């Protein structure tokens, strides 16, 4: 068994919580009326479920024990990003022009190594997986190129593990920032990731097992694309005919985000074009 396959939910959860605390910027104040409205609705939804489903004390205590375990294992980022974030993203981007966004997930790390396009993501000498070239242009909604853009990309390896969240993987493996050229063109060399399971040895895994769900996400690339005076887009790109496109546990797949890679001319790997269109704004 390789070292990285020994990753645990508790370890991944703790690192995700640490990253969230370090990266997130919180509003300094939320209006009392808004807190009252949201908290009251959330509590009412739970109370209504108890009353309508005739929840027993045995079930209530099982929930209480499970919530305690989620906190102890640090799995709140995983739980929220898998089951809730897709709805928040939908609200946030419902009126956005340009490319489609989707969830960030719990494994983003800022300040990845930057390089000019064409760029190759940091990877091990014997990195498993089919070589993949992702290329395209970054433009504004009016079609003008954005040469000052940044394309941040990160993804799991061929075994389904992320660097900095599983042991035995180099720090910036399959993570990088690529800077488009003067006409907004970018080119990224990496490997095609595989579908993977979210960690199942902790509290989230117990919920999945108890509910009879599966824990799989389809293979995907994470990206954040930004440019001056434009809205940052956070998204994921998936692969046509891939497993779990129709039953992604995180409910994050959108048709506009599915790629159809083709063999390269020399048959050494696969390549695909995807253009990013950013909406004006801060």
Ranges where pLDDT stays below 50 over 5 or more residues in a row are none
Distance between the termini: 47 Å
Would you count the extended β strands for me?
14
The secondary-structure class comes to alpha/beta
The topology string of helices and strands comes to HHHHHEEEEEEEHEEEEEEE
CATH architecture descriptor name of the domain at 91-278? Sandwich
Q: How much β-strand is present in the residues? A: 15-25%
What is the chains' assembly state? single chain
Mean pLDDT comes to: 93
The name of the CATH topology of the domain at 91-278 is Protocatechuate 3,4-Dioxygenase, subunit A
Counting DSSP H or I runs of 4 or more residues, the number of helices is 6
Give me the CATH superfamily of the domain at 91-278.
Answer: Aromatic compound dioxygenase
Shape label? globular
The strand line-up of the biggest sheet is 1-5-4-9-10-11
Give a description of the structure.
- By secondary structure, the chain is of the alpha/beta class.
- The protein has a domain at 91-278: Aromatic compound dioxygenase (Protocatechuate 3,4-Dioxygenase, subunit A, Sandwich), CATH 2.60.130.
- 28% of the residues lie in helices and 22% in strands.
- It contains 6 helices and 14 strands.
- The chain has helices spanning 9-23, 32-53, 57-72, 76-83, 85-92, 203-211, and strands spanning 114-116, 119-120, 131-140, 150-154, 175-179, 185-191, 196-197, 216-217, 220-226, 233-239, 258-259, 262-263, 270-273, 276-278.
- The protein has a 6-stranded mixed sheet, with no helix packed on it. Strands 2, 3, 6, 12, 13 and 14 form a 6-stranded mixed sheet that branches. A two-stranded antiparallel sheet has the order 7-8.
- A hairpin with a 6-residue loop joins β12 and β13 (270-273).
- α3 (57-72) runs antiparallel to α6 (203-211).
- The longest helix is centred in the N-terminal third of the chain and has 22 residues, at 32-53.
- 30% of the residues are buried.
- The model has no long low-confidence stretch (mean pLDDT 93).
């Amino acid at each position: 068994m390789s070292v990285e396959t020994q990753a645990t939910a508790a370890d991944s959860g703790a690192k995700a919580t640490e990253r969230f605390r370090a990266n997130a910027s919180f509003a300094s104040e939320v209006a009392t009326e808004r807190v009252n409205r949201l908290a009251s609705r959330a509590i009412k939804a739970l109370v209504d479920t108890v009353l309508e489903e005739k929840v027993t004390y045995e079930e209530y205590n099982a929930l209480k024990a499970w919530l305690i375990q989620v906190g102890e294992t640090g799995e709140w980022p995983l739980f929220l990003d898998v089951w809730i974030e897709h709805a928040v993203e939908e609200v946030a981007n419902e009126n956005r022009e340009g490319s489609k966004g989707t969830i960030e997930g719990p494994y983003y790390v800022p300040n990845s190594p930057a390089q000019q396009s064409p760029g190759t993501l940091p990877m091990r000498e014997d990195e498993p997986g089919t070589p993949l070239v992702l290329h395209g242009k970054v433009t504004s909604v009016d079609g003008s190129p954005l040469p000052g853009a940044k394309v941040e990309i990160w993804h799991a390896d061929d075994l389904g593990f992320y660097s900095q969240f599983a042991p035995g993987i180099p720090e910036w493996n399959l993570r990088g920032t690529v800077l488009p050229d003067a006409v907004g063109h970018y080119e990224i060399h990496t490997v095609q990731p595989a579908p993977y399971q979210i960690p199942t040895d902790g509290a989230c895994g117990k919920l999945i097992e108890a509910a009879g769900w599966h824990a799989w996400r389809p293979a995907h690339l994470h990206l954040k694309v930004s440019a001056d005076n434009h809205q940052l887009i956070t998204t994921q790109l998936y692969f046509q005919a891939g497993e779990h496109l129709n039953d992604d546990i995180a409910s994050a797949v959108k048709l506009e985000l599915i790629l159809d890679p083709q063999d390269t001319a020399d048959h050494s790997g696969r390549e695909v074009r995807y253009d990013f269109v950013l909406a004006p704004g801060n």
